Every structure is written in structure tokens, then in C-alpha cells.
């Protein structure tokens, strides 16, 4: 099943359970090297306010407490824009999340269940079912439904990721040229600039130029840090 029909089908299923909306996102690298959330490569929703996805792509994603909670949880969890929060949400909530919480309250996002999906390589996807204008006791219903929403989210993700392109699976937060990646990958193997030049049949100044350029893009103080940050963004995977 293609992505859009699968998300439509997921919406239909959660509506039968009393929810009104769904959101799905996927990012190959969840945080930057300095800890800031990276806007996902895929961020799609059904039955949410018209401006929501634009706001999240323009910076609200970095202020979303649900995403912070998803990074530290492996199980589905319940959250609310009003009233009682789950334990995982209580741990992450802080003043920084104010703009997103205010938006969720304005849009009457009464309750939601978020399913964090962690990959061994570090990829993160989340599937969220939201209820707008929920009845007062719907939070208890959501707790009971969380395992089923978790299964649905995992199933949807398995369907979605089957169609991911190599570009979708690559972090867009940092870009290096193919030659910069190649030089950094050989540097990671322990080769000197002179040895890299010999391996690539290039001059030492040319190799040094590529290494220095990669380091500047990564904001690294030296080559060791450049290699570490390139590995963080999984850029060295492209050279293998």
C-alpha cells in the first residue's frame, strides 16, 4: 500500500476508536550534534488545522514536548493539552514548550497517544492519534487503547518505510560533497592526508582542502571532531 492510502486507512481505524486525527513523522537523525531536534524528513497528518504542519516545519517541531518525550520512551504514551499528563510527559515538560502547548490548547487537542518507533541505527518515527474536544473521561479510554494504537503505529510504519527512498533515509540537517565524505571516511580509518591523497590519486593540498571544507560545514574544531560529527549525522554511511 502506498503512503497516502495507508495514512488514510490509519485515520479510519483511529476514528472508530474515538480519535479524530493522526500525525506521522520520520527522521533518520533525531537530534543535531548540539542536541536540537531536527525537523523530520517526513511530517504528514490527517484532520489537523490547516496551519499546523507549516508551523511545525517552521520551528514548532523543535518546541514540541511530545517529540522530546518520544526520544526517551520506547512504549506508547498518553498526553494531554489540558489536565493530567503521563509520567514521561511530566519528566520533559518545561517553559520552552509553552508556544506548542498554547497552540494545542487553542486547537482543543484534548488527548493523544504517541507511538515512538526507534531503529537500531538511530532513526526515529512517531505515530500519533489525537482526539479534539474529547469527553472528560477519554483520557482513561486512551490509556486502555494505547497498546492497540501502538500496534497500529508500528504496522503503519512498516508499510511506510518499505517505500522510503535513499534520500528519505539520509539526514538533511547537514550536507557534504561526495569527495568530502570520502576523505572524512578514510580519515576515520586512520589515514593521514598524505595517505588519503595516495589512495585517491589526488594531491595532498586537494585532500586537505576537502577535509578543511568538511570541518567548516560541520562546525568542527579539528579533524577528530569532524569525523565524530559526520558519523553522528550518518554521513559516513554514504561512503560505504
Give a structural overview:
This protein is of the alpha+beta class. 46% of the residues lie in helices and 14% in strands. The chain has ten helices and five strands, in the order H-E-E-H-H-E-H-H-E-E-H-H-H-H-H. It has helices spanning 3-16, 52-57, 65-71, 87-92, 98-106, 138-161, 178-188, 193-200, 204-218, 223-232; strands at residues 21-27, 42-46, 77-79, 109-118, 124-132. The protein has a five-stranded antiparallel β-sheet with strand order 2-1-5-4-3, sandwiched between helices. Strand 4 (109-118) and strand 5 (124-132) form a beta hairpin. The longest helix is centred in the middle third of the chain and has 24 residues, at 138-161. It is elongated, with a radius of gyration of 21 Å.
Structural class: alpha+beta
Mean pLDDT over the residues: 95
Q: What percent of residues are in strands?
A: 5-15%
Order of helices and strands: HEEHHEHHEEHHHHH
The total of beta strands comes to 5
Amino acid at each position: 500500500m502506498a503512503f497516502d492510502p495507508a495514512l488514510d486507512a490509519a485515520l479510519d481505524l483511529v476514528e472508530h476508536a474515538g480519535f479524530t486525527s493522526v500525525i506521522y513523522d520520520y527522521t533518520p537523525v533525531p537530534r543535531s550534534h548540539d542536541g536540537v531536534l531536527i525537523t523530520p524528513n517526513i511530517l504528514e497528518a490527517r484532520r489537523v488545522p490547516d496551519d499546523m504542519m507549516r508551523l511545525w516545519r517552521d520551528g514548532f517541531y523543535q518546541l514540541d514536548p511530545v517529540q522530546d518525550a518520544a526520544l526517551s520512551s520506547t512504549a506508547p504514551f498518553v498526553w494531554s493539552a489540558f489536565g493530567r499528563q503521563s509520567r514521561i510527559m511530566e519528566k520533559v515538560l518545561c517553559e520552552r514548550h509553552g508556544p506548542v502547548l498554547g497552540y494545542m490548547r487553542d486547537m482543543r487537542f484534548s488527548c493523544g497517544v504517541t507511538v515512538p518507533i526507534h531503529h537500531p541505527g538511530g532513526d526515529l518515527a512517531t505515530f500519533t492519534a489525537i482526539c479534539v474536544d474529547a469527553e472528560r473521561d477519554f483520557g482513561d479510554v486512551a490509556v486502555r487503547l494505547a497498546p492497540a494504537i501502538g500496534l497500529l503505529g508500528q504496522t503503519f510504519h512498516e508499510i511506510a518505510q518499505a517505500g522510503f527512498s535513499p534520500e528519505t533515509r539520509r539526514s538533511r540537517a547537514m550536507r557534504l560533497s561526495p569527495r568530502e565524505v570520502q576523505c572524512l571516511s578514510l580519515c576515520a580509518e586512520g589515514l593521514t592526508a598524505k595517505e588519503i591523497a595516495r589512495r585517491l590519486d589526488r594531491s595532498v593540498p586537494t585532500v586537505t582542502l576537502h577535509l578543511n571544507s568538511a570541518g567548516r560545514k560541520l562546525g568542527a574544531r579539528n579533524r577528530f571532531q569532524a569525523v565524530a560529527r559526520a558519523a553522528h549525522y550518518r554521513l559516513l554511511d554514504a561512503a560505504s
